[in-house]
Each structure stands twice: as C-alpha cells, then as structure tokens.
Known about the structure:
The protein is an alpha+beta fold. The chain has a domain at about 20-50 and about 110-240: EvaA sugar 2,3-dehydratase subunit (Nucleoside Triphosphate Pyrophosphohydrolase, Alpha-Beta Complex). Helices cover about 20% and strands about 30% of the residues. The protein is built from 11 helices and 24 strands. The strands form 5 sheets. Strands 6, 7, 8, 9, 10, 11 and 12 form a 7-stranded mixed β-sheet that branches. Strands 18, 19, 20, 21, 22, 23 and 24 form a 7-stranded mixed β-sheet that branches. Strands 1, 14, 15, 16 and 17 form a 5-stranded antiparallel β-sheet that branches. Helix 1 crosses helix 5, helix 5 crosses helix 11 (about 470-485) and helix 6 (about 235-240) crosses helix 11 (about 470-485). The two termini are about 15 Å apart. It comes from Streptosporangium sandarakinum.
Amino acid sequence: MSNATLTRHPAQPAAVGGPDLARRFARSARVTDSWVTSNDHLDTWLAEQHRANRFSVTPIPFSGLRGWRFRPGTGNLTHDSGRFFSIEGLHVRTDFEGGGDWSQPIINQPEIGILGLLVKEFDGVPHFLMQAKMEPGNVNTIQLSPTVQATRSNYTGVHGGRPIDYLEFFTDRSRAAVLVDVLQSEQGSWFLRKRNRNMVVETTGEVPEHPDFRWLTLGQIHRLLQRDNVINMDARTVLSCIPRLPDGDGDEIGDDPDRYRAALRASLSPSVWALHTDAHILHWLTDLKSRHEMVQRQDGLDTVKGWHRDDHQIAHESGRYFRVIATEVHAGNREVPAWTQPLVQPVERGVSAFLTRPIGGVTHLLVHARAEAGSRDVVELAPTVQLQPGNYAGLPPERVPRYREEALRPDPARLRYDTVQSEEGGRFYHAENRSMIIDVGEGFPLETPPEFCWMTPRQMSALLRHSYYVSIQARSLFAGLLSLA
C-alpha cells in the first residue's frame, strides 16, 4: 500500500467489516492522496464551496426571533413546536475538585441526533463521504462535516425542509453494515446531559453523487485536521471513535525519522506496555464517579443568579463565561433556506491541550477527570487542560486549573499539534479552541493529582467504544492526535 497516493485500478468488490477493521482504517490513514478525490481537486472544491454559496448570519434582538419566545412564569427560551432545543436555568452543586454551587443558563436538547460517516471501499481502501456544510455559528461558515449530521427534529422533518441526504444508509440496516455505533456526550458546560449517536456504516452498493459531498481517505482527512477550522467538531468526534491499529506487523515503525510519530503509532498496538492497566483506569474513574456527587436542578431561566437579560443578550454580570444571543440565518444549501435561532457565544477563545510524554518508551496522555454543569455521570475524561483563560484571571493559585501554565505558555519546540478548531456551529456562535498536543518529555513528573491519570492512546481508543467515558473536548483533540500517527 502506498504511503502517499492511491492510483486507479479496475474496480473490486468492497469488503465489509471483519476482524481486520482497525487495520483497514489504518490503511486508509496511510493513503494521503486519492484518484477518487485528489488533494488538488479537494482544495479547489472547498474554495468553490465558499465562493458559490451565499450565507449570512446576523445577530438580532430577541424580539426578532420567529417561532421562539420567552415563556411566561419561567423565562425559558423555547420553540413553539416544543422541539429542537430550549434555553433554561440550571442550578448545580458538586463536591468534586473543591466543590461549589452555582446557577447558569443551559441548552436542554433531550433528543438524540445522528452524527454518521458513510464508508465505501475504492481499490481496497476505505473512503469516507464528507459534507461541506454551513453552520450558523462557524467562524468561516462552511466546514467539512460527517455524511449525516442531524438532530431528530431535523431528520423527522419538524423544520419542514427537504429530506436529509444519505440518511437512509444510517436508518435502513439493509443499506449498510454498521462498523461503529456509540452514544457520546456533548459539551457539558453548555448542554444538559446531551448525547448524540456517533456512527460509521459501510456500503458496497451504489451511492448517488451530490455536489456538496466528496469521498476522502483518512489520510486526506488527517491532512485537513492540521489546518484551522476545516474539519468540524461533529466529524472529529466520530473520527475519534474509529478503531486504529498500526498498518502491518509494527516492525516498520522504528524506521520512521519522526520519533514522536513512530512512538505514537506504536502506542496504538494492543500488545504495547502501559503505566496503568485497563482495569486500574476503569477502577480510578468509577471510584471518582462513585465517591462524588453532581446535583442538577432544572428551573426557570429567570431564577439563575448573576445573569441578566436585555434586548440582545443573556450574559453574566462579570462579563465572563458566555452569552446567549439571537441570530437571523440565510443559507442556500441547507434543508431550510432561512430561519432564526438562539446561539451560545463564549466570551473568548478557549484552550484545550493534552500533555504527553514517553513512559517506558511508550507515548502516554495525561487525562483529567472533569466535572461539568450538564454532565450525565459526574465526570468524564477530558484533556489535561481545558479552559477560557479570562475566567481564572485574578483567582488565588488554589483555584487555578492544574497545568495551566504548561498550556498557556508552551515551549514551541515541544508543540506536536497546534491548530484552532471550532465547537459545533449549530448551537454555538464563533466558539473556538486553540487545540494543542504538547510533548513535555521524560523529565516531566509522573506523579499526578488524584483527578489526573496517565494512559496510552490505545487505552483511550478502547474507552471510546463505550458511552460517557470520554468528553467531547477530549474526543475532538484525540482526533487531532491520531492525525499525527
């Protein structure tokens, strides 16, 4: 298999599933260009998507929302249909990491959506059908999304728009074989117990062409993950759930001149040594969930303390955290061409970073068991550092997140991955994080606070086969880490 380019050969029948699934995906990751969609064509197509489609997203006063209103008695911002989502009040109390209690606005969207990637083999190499999709909150409007990215309200037609393209491959079991299917959480700081179905399905049949979709190898997607704001959050979370193994028997990786990438690839092997056993990691996480509490009480938006509403926003009195705004959207290539909706807007760009170091010659990630207001199960595994810097300005050292300095002032020579990536643009307005993988080296302390643990990428990948272990921020950043391998 070429490590650079897929050239065209006579068509062959695709192989679906099987015990070599992880190696098939690794094979796709090694193909960095393809005749199906060449890199030159891909770059031109993306540029044309931005030029050809006309979009506008304009902040408006709340009074300009159509079909949305603040409910008397609670102040909750809801849609007249009773579907989509609502902005409500949430009161939280926890004893985790020093504890605390507070109230805040939160998005309540109990329905489960589908985030799905369709796979098809070309010349024995799996390709993924990616969509150029406009989301109102994206800073650059269009980013590459999964084949299907839809809430239940959307794919059941509540919005009254045209049907979702390729949805049948994810809802009709006769159309495709299921390779990955797992419920995963969304942003716990802004969503109340939200979850989506992360799916990968594979077809051997014909797939109709569409001008907004292109077939890409994992290697091509990894190339785009090195760029700012190209692969959207919903694609990154599904990509993180794809099982990986080194392509081949693993002996060749020692010849890679990039020692960090070689060690990272080796750390995905099921036989690789790890500082902690899988059983130890599960015990550590389960123990934290069992010994601590997260009490959530839903209430009216009018009851949240320290938050105020005017004609244009709901914001905290300190100016920190986030605000809720209203927007008017026009989008020619969406199922509905125009609509209004509320969006959550962070007050600044965030920082998300994994610290990594070799332990016994094997790459390990430093993960943080983190509690968030809307978490389903007290804590999930998060990046080493995840914050908005301004939220902690002026606080005493004991209230500042651990390892903050390593993330805010990284040594450029130790940065292995450094991009700006967006949060989900359907609910969040211009929400970005500086996403980093920082190799802190063998001299970095192994001892950690009780809420942190060293684990290998293979162990992280294994947990991603299950629900509610790994947070959306960690999954998004893990997709970036895998792109290095």
